[in-house]
Amino acid sequence: xxxxxxxxxxxxxxxxxxxxxxxxxxxxxxxxxxxxxxxxxxxxxxxxxxxxxxxxxxxxxxxxxxxxxxxxxxxxxxxxxxxxxxxxxxxxxxxxxxxxxxxxxxxxxxxxxxxxxxxxxxxxxxxxxxxxxxxxxxxxxxxxxxxxxxxxxxxxxxxxxxxxxxxxxxxxxxxxxxxxxxxxxxxxxxxxxxxxxxxxxxxxxxxxxxxxxxxxxxxxxxxxxxxxxxxxxxxxxxxxxxxxxxxxx
Length: 249
Ligand code: 13P
Prior knowledge:
Layout: E1 4-9, H1 16-28, E2 35-40, H2 46-52, E3 58-61, H3 78-83, E4 88-91, H4 94-98, H5 104-116, E5 120-125, H6 129-133, H7 137-151, E6 161-165, H8 179-196, H9 199-204, E7 207-210, H10 218-222, E8 229-232, H11 241-245
Helix pairs in contact: 5-7, 7-8
Bound molecules: 1,3-dihydroxyacetonephosphate.
């Protein structure tokens, strides 16, 4: 069975004080031991979080560069993450794809680099409202998956990939996808994996839902058969993040 996975994406939020507060809360909370928890603070606070957070919770970067090291002002390398005991990174978040103009190819290249360097990847995909209304949701996601697959060596490489489906229209809007909307896309992603990668990869890959997940809606979403966890934005900064971690019945 797939282990339920809950990620917290702090995005560009927080201060030393507030981040320390979140860590303190998580350290003190009763978390379901059957859930894998990973939090992604801004890069400036990665070391602080890793130092104070208990070792059962992993820490992720929100981005990483696809070169080993050198003259790349402003970037962080995979080896620097490893050196800092940061074992995960988010890649392909829609905010990076749209605001920072990362193409499918750039995201795929970074993903390959991270996996080759031994870092797990929370790889995000999702359609815009315009895509959805035009009936292009699955086309967009398939294209994103295709770019990812073509850069990975083979089925083995998927072991350290967690897929996050985040419809752009649901991110930060309070407009969560319905259970049915989410399940439909998750099922389609799993089917795509089965047909284009392997049956084992389809069976084993965790597919997370992201977009306005809250303590209120998480329990119902967690019941869907292809929803294996969440990638949480705004609510990961609040005490209700613990309820989301513990949402799987
Ligand atoms: P919200 O939970 O704030 O909608 O953000 C979702 C997200 O983008 C997580 O990566």
